[in-house]
């Protein structure tokens, strides 16, 4: 028999993570020496529960331990690092810190904001409330990616002035008064920062297409039209300013990133970085981490007699997010030309659903029509819908509920009902898709072989080692 498979119910992550922690404590399996030395006993909550579990087992302060959030887009880490949050500037410096005020006002020769801004969900609410009249949006497909897409579209249509800056004419561009054409990553210089805090320099491979410019140039021209008098000539000059204002990036320069070298923040003024965090203490006055007890909150949406199916959603191997870019690649599109709804064999038998059956999913917020795919990847009355569609976007179904602490949308908490339509088509999954292939058996990624190489250096150490 194979290993048992854990299939948590949607919305129960906090429960089972806490249960594992409780079991470790009750069974005497917690790393008590680590707790005694480094902890005081006192996603959002799910992320906190994961951290509690890592503290219990001593999985911090050493190579190969800790946790990484799986980001939704490339460079989400870098965008957050640069202050794209309502109450922070670069390096997560608080706008409420007087020292930060002084430093930025002196450098910028301008008044520093002291009030918290709005996140994207709060902006949508503010538009509908008549408080926000104009928006400048770049690099984000908000009309499809944000939850409750119908409401987001309604809000955008009410804006008095809407500027969208993107590399393609996205669905969001349909609502714009002005569209500014930007350049993609291979047509500009800059940096990406991945989830392990690793800053990587990018180089211009192709010249930008005629009529397009890198984002920083577009923003500079707009700013100068408003009287800013910015004179940046290269992203390296912008990075130098960031480093001068941000202790977390004090030693980051384009010269130190030359030749595909990387740095992991925090980067000290002399250029040394920290591949491994919390080697000597945690970021608290006494140097010790905290357990943080969390309580379980029921999902915002529950199934009932009418909306009797639970809709899960997420990514698809072949496409990136909603498919704005990947649908333009014929080879990828031929393998997954459209979106579908995955139903279990149990549900298919109960409701006489076959591959290709056209169905209508109806939630408390909207509805979409798409074809069914019967699969063993879902169980019971749970459905799975990939997000790779603009015509039948899953966020036409999701609600506006968000996490109380982070305002992350409750994408996974959507109850729907299914209406079978008469039309029956061919399967939405072409036979050339990899799911119909026979994979070559392999043992998977054999990372141990890399660790045994004499030249391998475990992150956070200086000397090569054979025994990490």
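Q: What amino acid sequence fits the structure above?
A:
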């Amino acid at each position: 028999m194979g290993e048992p498979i854990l299939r948590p119910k949607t919305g129960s992550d906090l429960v089972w993570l806490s249960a594992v922690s409780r079991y470790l404590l009750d069974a005497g399996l917690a790393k008590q020496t680590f707790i005694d030395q480094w902890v005081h006993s006192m996603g959002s909550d799910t992320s906190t529960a994961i951290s509690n579990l890592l503290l219990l087992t001593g999985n911090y302060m050493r190579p190969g331990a800790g946790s990484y959030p799986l980001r939704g887009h490339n460079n989400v880490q870098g965008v957050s690092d640069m202050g794209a949050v309502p109450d922070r500037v670069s390096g997560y410096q608080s706008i409420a810190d007087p020292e930060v005020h002084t430093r930025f006002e002196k450098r910028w020769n301008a008044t520093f904001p002291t009030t918290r801004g709005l996140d994207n969900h709060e902006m949508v609410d503010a538009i509908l409330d008549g408080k926000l009249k104009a928006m400048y949006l770049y690099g984000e497909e908000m009309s499809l990616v944000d939850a409750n897409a119908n409401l987001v579209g309604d809000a955008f249509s009410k804006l008095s002035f809407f500027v969208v800056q993107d590399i393609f004419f996205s669905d969001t561009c349909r609502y714009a008064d002005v569209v500014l054409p930007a350049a993609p990553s291979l047509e500009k210089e800059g940096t990406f920062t991945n989830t392990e805090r690793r800053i990587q320099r990018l180089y211009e491979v192709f010249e930008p297409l005629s009529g397009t410019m890198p984002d920083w140039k577009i923003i500079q021209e707009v700013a100068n039209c408003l009287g800013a008098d910015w004179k940046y000539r290269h992203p390296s000059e912008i990075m130098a300013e960031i480093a001068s204002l941000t202790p977390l990036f004090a030693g980051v320069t384009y010269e130190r990133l030359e030749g595909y070298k990387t740095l992991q923040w925090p980067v000290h003024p002399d250029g040394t970085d920290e591949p491994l965090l919390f080697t000597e203490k945690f970021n608290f006055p006494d140097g010790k981490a905290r357990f943080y007890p969390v309580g379980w909150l029921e999902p915002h949406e529950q199934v009932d007699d009418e909306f009797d199916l639970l809709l899960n959603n997420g990514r698809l191997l072949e496409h990136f997010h909603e498919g704005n870019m990947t649908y333009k690649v014929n080879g990828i599109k031929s393998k997954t030309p459209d979106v579908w709804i995955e139903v279990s064999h149990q549900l298919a038998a109960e409701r006489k659903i076959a591959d290709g059956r056209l169905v209508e999913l109806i939630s408390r917020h909207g509805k979409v029509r798409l074809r069914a795919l019967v699969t063993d990847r879902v169980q019971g009355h749970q459905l799975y819908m990939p997000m790779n569609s603009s015509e039948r976007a899953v966020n036409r179904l999701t609600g506006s509920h968000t996490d109380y602490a982070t305002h992350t949308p409750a994408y996974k908490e959507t109850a729907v009902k299914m209406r079978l339509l008469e039309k029956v088509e061919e399967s939405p999954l072409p036979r050339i898709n990899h799911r119909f292939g026979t994979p070559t058996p392999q043992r998977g990624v054999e990372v141990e072989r890399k660790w045994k190489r004499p030249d391998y250096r475990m992150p956070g150490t200086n000397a090569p080692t054979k025994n990490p």
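Q: And what stands out in the fold?
A: Residues 76-264 form a domain with the Rossmann fold fold (CATH 3.40.50.740).
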